[in-house]
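so im writing up the methods section and need the Interleukin-17 receptor C record in one place, dumping it here so i stop losing it
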Amino acid sequence: MPVPWFLLSLALGRSPMVLPLERLVGPQDATHCSPGLSCQLWDNDILCLPGDIVPALGPVLVPTHLQTELVLRCGQETDCDLCVRVAVHLAVHGHWEEPEDEKKFGGAADPGLETPRNASLQAQVVLSFQAYPTARCVLLEVQVPAALVQFGQSVGSVVYDCFEAALGSEVQIWSYTQPRYEKKLNLTQQLPDCRGLEVRNSIRSCWALPWLNVSADGDNARLVLNVSEEQHFSLFLYWKQVQGPPKPWWQKNLTGPQIITLNHTDLVPCLCIQVWPLEPDSFRTNICPFREDPRAHRNLWRAARLRLLTLQSWRLEALCPLPAEAALCWQAPGGEPCQPLVPPLSWENITVNVNSWEKLQLQECLWADSLGPLNDDVLLLETRGPQDNRSLCALEPSGCTSLPSRTSTMAARLGEYLLQDLQSGQCLQLWNDDLGAIWACPMDKYTHKRWALVWLACLLFAAALSLFLLLRKDHEKAAARSRATLLLYSADDSSFERLVGALASALCQLPLRVAVDLWSRRELSAQGPVAWFHSQRRQTLQEGGMVVLLFSPGAVALCSEWLQDGVSAPGAHGPHDAFRASLSCVLPDFLQGRASGRYVAACFDRLLRPDAVPALFRTVPVFSLPSQLPDFLGALQRPSAPRPGRLRERAEQVSRALQPALESYFHPPGTPGPGRWVAPGTGDET
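--- predicted struct ---
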């Protein structure tokens, strides 16, 4: 999806935010407070030692809220510094303790002890300010007259002018009293830089600031530094980290103006740009313009790698901080999907630090290097419960079989031997934590011992079976000529589904066994589209059959969505849309070069041109129907294909069967002319 660079350029323009600031004349700090209060600033800074919280023996003044305001402290009209004004709001907390004699005897206390109840309250309020590399603490003395002392009520505020801070810095402010009666108040604020101030001419460090804009250059990003020809500045690109210093990429000293192009493959969310004039005490501008760029997030995941550290820990290596969630799964040989552990072990959070989209981003077998080539092993999953209870099950494609078990699976039949191997230390531990463990136990020795007699029986049975095979020879030859064909399409609308049904019915008249989801809706609903397609694809390819990808405008849009992570294509996709479900298994075959000889693609004349099929799927033959029906049918036949004359007869037979469905699709009843509009670039418009 293209990135709206013009919005980014607008946000990074010369004046994205205007802040008119009040000017303070003179270098002296000052304080003032609300009417009725009296306040005084200590002459010198104090040590920042908050101390422990102590109990209050009566009503006390405590800070309840902090407010800040940016002002300018100016020695001259054009020589100012940014300053943070802080207002501390105060309230009365606590209450007077009853005298001991009044508690004991229930009478009136000594009148002389009531004097404090009518006295004013005093407090020493500390303001602590930190902004790298500056740290200061000041002390404000505040007095509240007795008339304003109301328990639990605000009494006003005291204002301090002011803490000087650097442009663009992050400041932290704390407030508490001495002695400290409650938790410290805290406020963190990011100060604006020169681009956001209306006083650029009043702050010397802003005078020669290079102005930086980011715009588009095709798929790439273009950095435009709009400075004068004699201006010297430094440009620094780095990867920002949540903790610790940034990771540098490169830095150059340049003379303006400059236009620098960044390749789109180098963009990641934490890539930031720092630029500053080559002058003493110059201000440095930092921007991170790619944080919300979808392409930058995809680049980050493509470059991420999982590394195994110990038996039960791993590390996610990425250029940017990337919070992600990892889970253990297991995968049977043959490229089947990685299945979650059942029952599951604990999920581990990996924080190396961006959004974790709710889909699989990365899958790696971390133990492949340490274990060597695949072995004929069984994975045993051990789960631990309270009071040191534990249970074992063997992972199989059908689930996790408890050991021991009376079921008829392979792991159940060998359960006793597997448990003996586990107890004798012949199994390799792959994982171990407080909730469970995973073991790999060898299977080859049991296979040889247990099935030796079975193989002998099979040899004796072979003679009897050969006679049966001879009797069924003619039938098997006929069946062999019927090649399995799996037809996949996108359910764009009901008219297109009728057209697909006509094609599937016509192909069934030939020596082809056609599977299509239109004829398997009950199984599709029961199993789900992914499971249904996976079983059909595996059966078709195991029998040497062919998978046909029938492309339409809807199918092209779905493929583009998967290949580019773009916005979902328009149109409804129901629960029976096997084409959408099949992409997760079809795409790896094309990406890994396994599609040739197993897949063909097709589209209908006037609906979609062959060159509109995504380039990835044009690595296999693409046929336009019905104009290229002979070649299409030839690709579906086994190597011992019929003679060309016979193939043309079959193509004419299929074409005649398709003609009524094509006429109905492109010229629906009741329309005087062409009944269906075809988008430019997808087919003929005649």
